[in-house]
Design brief:
Elements lengths: L3 H14 L4 H18 L11 H9 L14 H16 L4 H14 L5 H9 L3 H11 L3 H23 L20 E6 L5 E5 L5 E4 L15 E6 L2 E9 L4 E7 L9 H6 L2 H9 L3 E2 L5 H5 L3
Parallel strand pairs: 1-6, 6-7
Antiparallel strand pairs: 1-2, 2-3, 4-5, 5-6
The protein binds zinc ion (2 copies).
The site of one zinc ion (ZN) has 9 residues, from loops.
Amino acid sequence: MADIALLEKSRDQILKKRPAYTDILNFYVRVFQAQEEIRRQIRIDPVSIDPSLLDKKLGHDMPLIDPDQFVMDQSASGRLLETLCDIAENRSDALSKAAVSLKSAMANSRINTETLFDAVLASDGETLSTLSGTIGITAGHLIMFAFLSMSPVIETGAGQLSVYLKDRSHDKGYCPVCGNYPDLFFLDDTGKRHLKCSFCSHCWEVGRMGCVICENNDPDTRQYFFSPEEKEYRVDVCEACRKYIKGVDTRHLDRAFFPKLELVATMHLDIKAGEAGYTSLSDFDPIKEETLS
Ligand SMILES: [Zn+2]
Ligand SMILES: [Zn+2]
């Protein structure tokens, strides 16, 4: 997501059609800009994987690493966390209050960001709950701020690791780098289906048919929501596992494709899928849970 001018243009094009997203998209574009600035300063050594372990993992379609094996640049993520608090402070909602509390907890060393980032990587709910209690904000808000601060580092690490995959096909519903579930699929200009990891943002190609989670291939139990007003979006649902995943058909997109921007701009589809009784694939979805609360 390097080109900020293009990102802003895509945001403006979305807002012309759906002005209700103005506040939230403006907020996220500022977050994405801050993430880009930090991305250039990240210094991490690549994770190295022993050749025999690598063969085993690739041979069994196993992810290269567990999420807690991502190497952190504590300093870069710490600086980004402060910037994100500054950005959120200007809002007038629960997020702004959370940002003020979080900033003050960091300023007077009531929390250690290294402990926070490690707890997010390890999905250590107990530590996250203790930290959020110390700060006086919800665990959801804390995870959201932390994850947004860590994302550029995690994505840099995933980029380094992806060279191990050597363009191998991975026709599975979990990320070949870190094992997390996707939060979005997209169809490229030739109609091929790709999944985007909710955690490390690695993208991989999968077959066009079938549920990405339970691999159900029965066409009678696989459906999708589609609205003629939003030709670029689709929500695939599976009757067998009752999961859904949002998708973007880039062939119908009238703007540059920024997966994370489209994820935020399609929250109405999450609501629609939820009302119809489906749940998202990924448990890890701090943005959707907390931004509007
Ligand atoms: Zn991943
Ligand atoms: Zn399924």
